[in-house]
Design brief:
There is one protein chain. The protein has one domain. The chain is built from 6 helices and 7 strands, in the order αβαβββαβαααββ. InterPro entries: Chlorophyllase-like.
Length: 256
């Protein structure tokens, strides 16, 4: 587990509007604080394992990141870092409904260490003619909204992969069969497996860098976020590290 516990909510019946999903996210967080220890122990994790529930990282994929941003715009809570996976703003792929969490040209009212993993085929249209992550509504729209003076941030784009390629193979095949999102038809099942492990590895490196107190170890973790030659897939990377050293798990918030 690399010392990380992950809670991933799953539902087909949530409201369509991302803003209306925020209370459900709050419910998941509150549930984890009360129940996660017990559930891990029930499922075989040693009772000696103690979770640090006073500090945690929030992550979101696609429009899930919209919900995440709306949550953090209200308050940092106990969140001390965030992960975005091909984040998408808005309620519809054309951006016709004016429900957005980000206003281009304006910074968000919070800042915290951020790992942003994108996919090169995010903007490729599916059968509908729309992409699952339209360029004007995704990725750099989010990255650029983090104020560089209060948020260290790392942007890594896996150029050969698509929006759904971090899912289990069954779901990837469903997306490709329906052409719900654009995809790279040249990829093999094995390459999808490599990509899933890459994404997980990047997140683990980020978590380790945030929470280790050993500067030397932190530097070794940071290398996997900043040096493309150490990454297992082809990437384009950029970052803005406030101090040029190891990031600290923390969150700054101010009234909008």
């Amino acid at each position: 587990s690399h010392g990380v516990a992950v809670v991933g909510p799953w539902s087909f019946s949530l409201p369509v509007n991302p803003v209306d999903k925020v209370p459900y996210l709050e419910g998941v967080i509150n549930w984890a604080k009360v129940n996660l220890h017990k559930q891990l122990h029930i499922n075989g994790v040693s009772v000696g394992v103690v979770l640090n529930l006073a500090n945690y990282i929030l992550g979101g994929h696609s429009s899930g990141a919209h919900v995440q941003v709306e949550y953090l715009k209200k308050s940092c809570g106990d969140v001390s870092g965030q992960v975005w996976l091909s984040p998408v703003d808005g309620m519809d792929p054309a951006g016709l409904l004016p429900i957005f969490c980000i206003e281009p040209g304006k910074y968000l009212n919070y800042g915290l260490p951020t790992l942003h993993l994108a996919a090169g085929y995010d903007t490729v249209p599916g059968a509908s003619g729309f992409a699952c992550a339209p360029g004007e509504l995704s990725n750099l729209r989010f990255y650029d909204a983090l104020h560089p003076e209060i948020a260290s941030k790392w942007f890594i784009n896996a150029t050969r992969f698509a929006h759904a390629d971090l899912l289990d193979q069954m779901f990837i095949e469903t997306v490709e069969a329906t052409q719900f999102c654009g995809y790279n038809s040249e990829l093999t099942d094995e390459e999808h497996g490599v990509y899933r492990r890459y994404a997980a590895g990047q997140i683990v490196s980020f978590v380790k860098a945030l929470y280790t107190v050993d500067e030397e170890k932190c530097s070794s973790y940071m290398a996997y976020l900043e040096d493309p030659t150490l990454m297992t897939v082809q990437v384009e990377a950029q970052h803005s590290n406030l101090k040029g050293t190891c990031p600290k798990a923390s969150c700054s918030w101010f009234h909008p």
